[in-house]
Sequence to fold (322 residues):
Amino acid sequence: MREALEVLDNVRLNFSQSGLFALNVTIAFIMFGVALDIKLQHFKDVIMKPKSALVGVLSQFLLLPLVTLAFILILNPTPTVALGMILIASCPGGNISNFMSALAKGNVALSVSLTAVATLAATFMTPVNFAIWGKIYLNQYNASAGAGNYLVPIEIDFFQMVQTVVVLLGIPVVLGVLFSQYLPRFTARIKKPIRQLSIIIFIAFVVILLSANFDHFMKFIHLVFIIVLIHNAIALGTGFSISTLFRLPRVDRRTISLETGIQNSGLALVLMFNPKIFPPELELGGMTIIAAWWGVWHIISGLAISTIWSKKPLTQPATSNG
Fold:
């Protein structure tokens, strides 16, 4: 497996600086649109009825990186592929998780609350998780591979990552919440078109990225397809398993599964392409291919499981704590 994946390290996706800037703006715009649905009441609801929300945050920010590391140690991929998987697992939920939760007849209020808490938490937890779990993996890899491995020089600028995540997530989310709180009528008029536009723009970026790198994807997709499929299935299964273990109602299990399995791969790509975080001389093709294909696959898998759940009746009341 590792030998077959090594070819990915030399892959360079065609993505200009202007394209990267546009992707940054798009991610910020998407998160602003997501935050328009967030009200201060959602944070109060989490405080008053914390069980489901805490399980969701636990699933997303602790269990998913942990099971990702376990999967990596079993799979034994190349280091760049492994680091890409860890970075994906460290990101908050994707921008379409609320829509999918509604489609799946999940707990939409819980989904929005988790989006609020997880997105704000990600400004700190995404860099911390990547630093912690990435370091654990690199230490293990270098110990088994021997001294002098080419991965030794990889040192991620932690504070630059924090700064980038705060700009892309923290500021847009705070602005969106302020709009929702203090300009409710204006927010009610703009949030639907902004949500629709942000999804269209994000999908367009994925299509443009794929088309600009079509030869790369056609040549190497077979190397990452199964990895992303299994990793995404593990993420969805982690959310469902932990919520079942805590005996949450089925409506909440669906939501937590989707919140854990739908990751913000766009944020991961932005971080990977930031030369102040990952120096350009590093060969990180495996990271970018994994993140780019995840952005496609989690839409497919999320819509599929949401559609299946939408046809299955809920036998338990839609309450947050049973």
